[in-house]
## 1
Amino acid sequence: MTNVRRDLFDERRSSRKTIDQSGVWRFREAVLVIDESTIVTHPEGSTRLYERDGIFFKHEGENPTGSFKDRGMTVAVTQAVRLGTHTIGCASTGNTSASAAAYAAQAGLRAVVFIPAGKVATGKLAQTLAYGALVLQVRGDFDAAMRLVLEASKRLGIYLVNSINPFRIEGQKTIVWELLQDLEWNPPDWIVVPAGNLGNTSAFGKALVEARDAGWIAKMPRLAAIQASGANPFYRSFRENFARRHRVTPETIASAIRIGDPVSFDNAVAALRATNGVVEEVTDEELMTAKRDIDHMGIGCEPASATTLAGVRKLRKAGVMRDADRIVCVLTGHVLKDTDAIRSDRIVEIDPDVDAVERALD
Ligand code: F0G
């Protein structure tokens, strides 16, 4: 793959050039070699790494459209432009669609998105519409929308920008490289990621293998992929040592990962094997408790992202993770992505007088 020195990536962190400021294109030799003038970048990435209560949180919700999807989308849309594409398309639980719509708008392409009717958070749908995409609400779940867009893209010449598009994966590798860089290339023991369609899990495995092979890191972190227990086909397979592939009818409050038949299954298995990784499941109650805790740290995230902290708690209890282990949780989406999941019991309606304020404070 690449024999680039990591010092080059470090030097670019102080550059004022847009493609150097992008947390994706800063690693461009190992992402996609292409004429710089073709690159469609906001820029994206360069998100913060927070440390709270001894755990690191890489906040991918700080990307331009509020999720990690922008890291893959900048590469996929750049490739779409290079190919002379007119229309890009994807199935989505809401974040991919918002990202695809934004990058299509920037590149002057048409975006058509396939979403499960009634199962996408309102803000994500609004955001997708705002950027100008055509929204097809499919009567069925995400997996049905995914099957449909696969067929439609073949028949109608739509350029597919879901994570089975290898250019998406190339971009998402940089989440891992950037967090390693944030830690001055001193790898953590664990990288924890929410698992839905399994694109990110696949990308993280590829990123770690490449980082090791290039000599950027001396030690391999372990991956922990966390699923919601109501949408846990990958967890079920893991429990059987991946002897067979499971499919489930998904149900979870974390609508971003309400997926029963993930497309990147095989690559995710490879990622787990390459990193001696584990898969865990957490209930909606466990992930919502973790979400409130992350929100109350002043960081905030959407429900799917909080599977990470919930998963860490479970894996620590089981003795798989030790208290002294250095852990990075990847928060995949912004707190405002899913406002329906935020409790409103701390709103008190009052008349405009100070006595009412005093009563409310008691
Ligand atoms: N977290 C968030 C916030 C997501 O939006 C997604 C996936 C994931 C985690 C899971 O990542 O699919 O790579 O395993 N969202 C997709 C979408 C399905 O359409 O926005 P994954």
## 2
Amino acid sequence: MAGRLAGKTALVTSAAQGIGRATVLAMVAEGATVVATDINEAALASLANENAAITTHKLDVTNQADVDAIAAKAGTPDVLFNCSGYVHAGTIMDVVDKDWDFAFELNVRAHYRMMRAFTPGWLAKASNTGKASVINMASLASSVKGVPNRFLYGTSKAAVIGMTKAMAADFLNKGIRVNAICPGTVDTPSLHDRMRATGDYEAAHKAFIGRQPMGRLGTAAEIAALVVYLASDESGFITGQAINIDGGWSV
Ligand code: NAD
């Protein structure tokens, strides 16, 4: 199949809904073969029916045995999109150790686990260019921007950016590109969960839109399009970057 990702294999974590799901669909539309993974098997099942180029596997990215199993099964993908993450609301005064551990486990360590599992395979590839493109999900709420009530989330997503740059620097000349993406507020199922969790859905909806200068939320498809670009050889001169895709929130 023709397309910007023709001939490439990709693995996406947390792919059952939201940005991960939209990215899987965008990748297969560009000719990739995709292994879509998530902890939620039921939600993944519908994705498998979308396109024959998609295979699905249950993967809890916080579980090393699960990561090892998928690495053994999936071989060495050309593209790895680490999409997992959870938003804790609150200031430093709201943080308890259990939440700190969970945020760093899912938002940061999971990306590390996945990259660690596949790096030996990438390094073993014969060519010294274009071996792999890794895209790590960060957020605008990170080292890019301090967002009120996102202490733990912003701290963990800043770590993703640091990890991305460190990894990119180590493998600059070994054919492994590593970039992070930093979305603003994106219309996904968990965003609506967060709006409901405030107890006043309408007010929260208004506030989320209000903080976006364009007066609208981003779409998962818009974020997916950036991931496809970073996954493709068109972006071959880009590595170690944290790319904002935020409707001008950071301007
Ligand atoms: P989402 O929060 O709606 O869905 C998250 C998915 O992660 C679900 O399918 C869930 O089953 C899966 N998941 C949960 N725990 C898991 C685990 N242990 N192992 C594997 N999968 C697991 O998706 P979203 O809103 O598109 O967010 C995806 C990523 O984008 C997250 O890292 C999030 O922080 C980041 N992000 C989102 C926004 C936004 O506004 N939606 C903005 C910036 C960054």
## 3
Amino acid sequence: MVSEASHSVTRAGAQVLVASNRGPVTYSLGDDGTLDAKRGGGGLVSGLSAIGDDADALWVCSALGEGDREAVRRGVGEPGVRMLDIDAAVHADAYNGVANSVLWFVHHMLYQTPLEPAFGPEFRAQWASYEAYNRAFAEALAESAGPGAAVLVQDYHLALVPGMLRELRADLRIGHFSHTPWAPVDYFRMLPDDIAERLLRGMLGADRLGFLTGRWADAFTACCVAVLGGTSGTRIGVHGLGADADFLRERSRRADVEERLAALREQIGGDGTRKVVVRVDRTELSKNIVRGLHAYRLLLDERPEWRERVVHVAFAYPSRQDLAVYRDYTAEVSRVASAINSAYGTDSWMPVILHVKDDFARSLAAYRLADVALVNPIRDGMNLVAKEVPVVSDEGCALVLSREAGAFEELGDDALVVNPYDVSGTAQALHTALTMPSAERAERTKRLAASATSLPPSQWFLDQLQALTAP
Ligand code: G6P
């Protein structure tokens, strides 16, 4: 099922291995047949680079699109990356069917329960693919790992890998890290009993499990106790990923960001007198973008003094567009934003500026000029936007933060905390944030930035590696 070009970059005997569905590089296939490689960022990329080029490290990931598959077929690759060309239909069932439509929904509590979930034969077929996809990773890791190597498996896509790998290679140190929340017991038990059990047993195959907050770690333990009677000796640790301050501060002062700043100011209008509420998200069902827009609308409705004096800059970048429910949600975000603009907009004022095309430099520009950042997820493993804004902000920014975001554990004291379902409460918090005196805002921003950067990605990664390999 897995094919790989014979002269791929696989190194036999790696000492540190990372496994994740999405890898650090993606390939796109041009019309003329050339392959273009694009490297991504994120915590794992900086973590792995922190262990140095000499370390014998290997990142095992899945080919995701046609460009990736073609790269594997041609034997094109990056040093230190092994991309698995798992059968496209198997991957789609595992990734879209099980990981994104079931596990993501369970951990973020996204079901509309009167009608869903309904686990029948279709789910069972997808589950078989999820197992096959996990097995492909376990086999590749077993083949590539040197004796006694440390393997760090990432996220809900690969929950079965620790158990499968343990059976193949008892000598390895196996860690697993969850970047999402973990569901509360009653919600987790919506899964068919045998599936719930297999997921937990799969994860408990690891020597050590990592979570972003104590809350998610405790939820996992509670599920193990309820379903299996205990955690059978697997160690559980908490590692809250922080923002990468050095990178962000340098990157956000480059010329392309300055250009975007000027363009945004132009769009906002009002000669610099208008306040700006910023949000930047991937368009995930869990990000609660629609309720955020409703709260902003309520602010304009109930407090007319804000009309013409505030602009909501909302960046909602595409995510998982293979799934109809994501496409519908994306359409709803645009619909609600347009409705606000038609109801309240004037010739000289556009209340909502919505951008849906991913542009990192523009996101940084928005972080810099924000007076208020709105981060109101329904539920979120951590939420790095909440941590990045205070680091980059030019003059201080008030943070309206959901208590259901992992970041709340670290940032709650200096944020304006909201219940994400409470639209009225969120509108009130926006008003409080917009009227916060600038000295207080600057002070809070300083403290937020300090907490947000206390565990930079490289340290986050090294701590896990050390905890896993400690005798
Ligand atoms: C978010 C979550 C991660 C997850 C990732 C997958 O960033 O925090 O836990 O791995 O989404 O996103 P993808 O675009 O690969 O489906």
## 4
Amino acid sequence: MAKKQSIDPFMEKLVSLCKRRGFIFQSSEIYGGLGSCWDYGPLGVELKNNVKRAWWEAMTHRRDDIEGLDAAILMHPKVWEASGHIAGFTDPLVDCKQCKHRFRADTIETEKCPDCGGELTEPRMFNLMFKTFMGPVEEESAVIYMRPETAQGIYVNFHNVLQPSRQKVPFGIAQIGKAFRNEITPGNFIFRTREFEQMEMQYFVNPAEDQKWFDYWKEQRWNWYLELGIRPEKLRWHEHGKGELAHYAKAAYDIEYEFSFGWKEIEGIHNRTDFDLTRHAEHSGKDMRYFDQEKNEKYLPYIIETSAGADRGTLVILADAYFEEEVKGETRVALRLSPKIAPIKAAVFPLVKKDGMPEVATKIYQDLKKHFKVFYDDGGAVGRRYRRMDEAGTPFCLTVDGQTLEDDTVTVRDRDSMEQTRHKIGELVELIGGKVG
Ligand code: ATP
């Protein structure tokens, strides 16, 4: 099932670090893997959860104007008729008659097969939605779809959220959840997969104010990546030109990141106008308008959408953090993750497994783990333990040594500078907690 994907040398190193340290590995690996499906291991799930938490906090907790939602993956099939996904969520495909490889017609520049030079078939349209059946009978009327985006769950629940929350336009609804697309050309590790997670927010505005809010959200979303420590020179805007712009959108900008395989979209900010609410009003027969009590008028709000991928975002974080340097003739590999999203915030080591050091180190570990994620390691030379934590992206390593037993201090080693400073055990929660919160 797993077609071998070609990846560049940088990605190869990143994929192998992710496997080695338990961030991410192939789905169903013992059966040879399942194409472009990936499982998040112990460190990966922490990292991705931290990315999602950072998004959720920025989008909901720290604001008064955005409500959260967790809608079902399976939705009424009419949702996808209304959204246009049944009719239009398609990619043009061509097959090579010789080597049988399949490509998205819009991504290849030659008329002959890029792999073997063979002749290509005419493009055929291929719907990207996964279909399944609801209930015991596999018949046409039982067909439902795995959602290809989370956004529709927000549109159809516009009034369900509006009423109990007593929000007023402008306000938003945010959601994190799985989406499924039967992509033709998945690849580049977790960049493009068939099952992925989205972090989407739909902001409902008065149509007269759409440009103001569009500009506002562009700035907010750009800054979010900077807050996570992404290097600004690796980010750029891509404006959708006339040919690219979805027919319903008034304006669309992508935030792109410079991966080793080129500049690629990581998030889209779209002015979707009143397209979605209009369509759902038409197809459901329900009034989707907003009632403005002050002006005593009803209207369909415009929607400014911010649509990011949690997996793609996690890849950006990993790729941006990956770092190599030569130290004493050896290559040191580290993930320079922001302490805010690092899976493990600090590791605690006894320098040696004797002289009472493990007892003191265990006590520190037990105390710190009430505050943040810590890891205890007494296996092997301390240098090797540091290296393992460098690869895990752990910002601080705390070592209990002979001096600790005399004056209650430990060494705190910084992942990036490798400098060590001594601190009182009693100050550790504040010292580290202040940086990881
Ligand atoms: P692309 O052109 O890369 O296929 P898109 O324009 O179809 O992306 P959107 O529909 O705007 O993407 O989805 C919003 C976000 O969801 C993307 O910016 C990306 O982060 C994420 N995303 C979309 N498709 C995938 C996928 N197949 N795998 C992982 N993440 C994805």
